[in-house]
Write a structure and sequence with these properties.
It is built from 11 helices and 9 strands. The strands form 2 sheets. Strands 2-7-4-5-8-9 form a 6-stranded antiparallel beta sheet. Strands 1-3-6 form a 3-stranded mixed beta sheet, with no helix packed on it. Strand 4 and strand 5 form a beta hairpin.
Length: 287
C-alpha cells in the first residue's frame, strides 16, 4: 500500500484518455506524470490530493497536476456512484496548449494544476455536461469538447485550491508511513476508539514519531483525521432515515452536543441543516 506510479497507456491515435474506472474496494495511493480531470457522482466520498484530505457530498470535480499523489476517489464508497476520468498524454500541454497563444488561459490553468483544484457551482455544471457528452462522440469532437472543458475551468473563479505548497511525488518518495494501513485501520475502528499507539506500531514507528510524521504528511493530526473520517461517515447516514443521536453513536461519538459542535465546525452547518439540504441525494438514481 505504499505510493505507486500508475502507468497509463494511450491509444496510438489519441492524445488523451477518457474512461470510467471502478476501484472502490482498492486503496490506490498513486501518482503519474499525466494531468488528470476526475468527476465523481456519489452520495458521499473522500478526496485525498497531495496533503489535502476532505470529504465531498453529491458530486466532485477536480483537476490534478502531474506527479501529484492522490487516492482513488471511489475508495470506500459503499453506495452506487458514477465516475469519469480524463487523463492527458504527458506531451499534450506542450504539443497542444503551450505552443498556441490563444490557449494562454488554459496554459496558466495547467501550470497551477500541481496544487490540485476542485471546482464548484456553475463551472462544475458546465464542465460536467461536456464530460458526459464526450462519452457519446468521436475522437475529434471529443478533443474539441476537452478544450472547451479546459477553457471553462481556466476562466472560472469557482474553485478551491487544495494545497498551499508543492506536493508532487518528490515530497512523498521517502514515505515511511503506509497510508493504506492507516486508512484501513481507521475504517475498521472509527466507530470505536482508534488508538494512535496501535497504528504507530503497525507502521513501525514510535507514537511520537508517527504523530509528527503524520502531521507533516497530511497537515492534520491523527485525531483530527479520525474525526474528519467519522464526520464523513455521518454525512452518508444523515441522508437516510436515521436519528442524529443514533448516527453520532454509530460513528464513534459518546457526546451528542460534541458531535453537533464538531459537525458544524467541519461542515459549516448543523447535522439537521445538512440533512434537510441533502436529503434528496439519497433518492437520486445513480448507476
Amino acid at each position: 500500500m505504499k505510493i505507486e506510479k500508475e502507468i497509463i497507456s494511450f491509444e496510438a491515435e489519441s492524445s488523451f484518455k477518457i474512461h470510467t474506472p471502478r476501484l472502490k474496494n482498492y486503496f490506490f495511493w498513486h501518482y503519474h506524470p499525466e494531468i488528470e480531470i476526475v468527476y465523481v457522482e456519489a452520495i458521499n466520498g473522500i478526496s485525498h490530493v497531495g496533503k489535502n484530505i476532505s470529504g465531498f457530498v453529491g458530486d466532485y470535480l477536480v483537476l490534478i497536476g502531474p506527479n501529484v499523489p492522490h487516492l482513488n476517489f471511489d475508495y470506500g464508497i459503499e453506495t452506487a456512484y458514477k465516475q469519469i476520468v480524463i487523463q492527458l498524454n504527458e506531451k499534450f500541454p506542450e504539443n497542444t496548449i503551450i505552443s498556441t497563444p490563444e490557449f494562454n488561459c488554459i496554459k496558466n490553468l495547467l501550470e497551477r494544476s500541481y496544487l490540485g483544484l476542485s471546482f464548484y457551482g456553475e463551472t462544475k455544471e458546465k464542465a460536467v455536461k461536456c464530460l458526459k457528452e464526450m462519452q457519446q462522440i468521436g475522437l475529434f469532437d471529443s478533443l474539441l469538447k476537452l478544450i472547451e472543458i479546459l477553457n471553462i475551468l481556466a476562466n472560472s473563479n469557482e474553485y478551491k485550491q487544495l494545497n498551499q505548497e508543492d506536493t508532487r511525488v518528490k515530497f512523498f518518495l521517502n514515505d515511511k508511513v503506509r497510508l493504506g494501513t492507516v486508512y484501513n485501520y481507521i475504517h475498521e475502528n472509527y466507530d470505536k476508539t482508534p488508538n494512535v499507539n496501535v497504528v504507530a506500531e503497525m507502521v513501525h514507528l514510535s507514537t511520537s514519531a508517527f504523530c509528527r510524521y503524520f502531521k507533516k504528511q497530511t497537515d492534520i493530526t491523527f485525531t483530527d483525521f479520525v474525526n474528519q473520517y467519522r464526520i464523513n461517515q455521518a454525512k452518508t447516514l444523515l441522508l437516510y432515515d436515521v436519528s442524529i443521536s443514533e448516527i453520532a453513536y454509530n460513528v464513534g461519538f459518546d457526546s451528542i452536543p460534541y458531535f453537533n459542535k464538531l459537525f458544524k465546525i467541519l461542515v459549516g452547518e448543523t447535522p439537521t441543516e445538512f440533512k434537510n439540504r441533502h436529503k434528496s441525494v439519497a433518492n437520486s438514481k445513480l448507476i
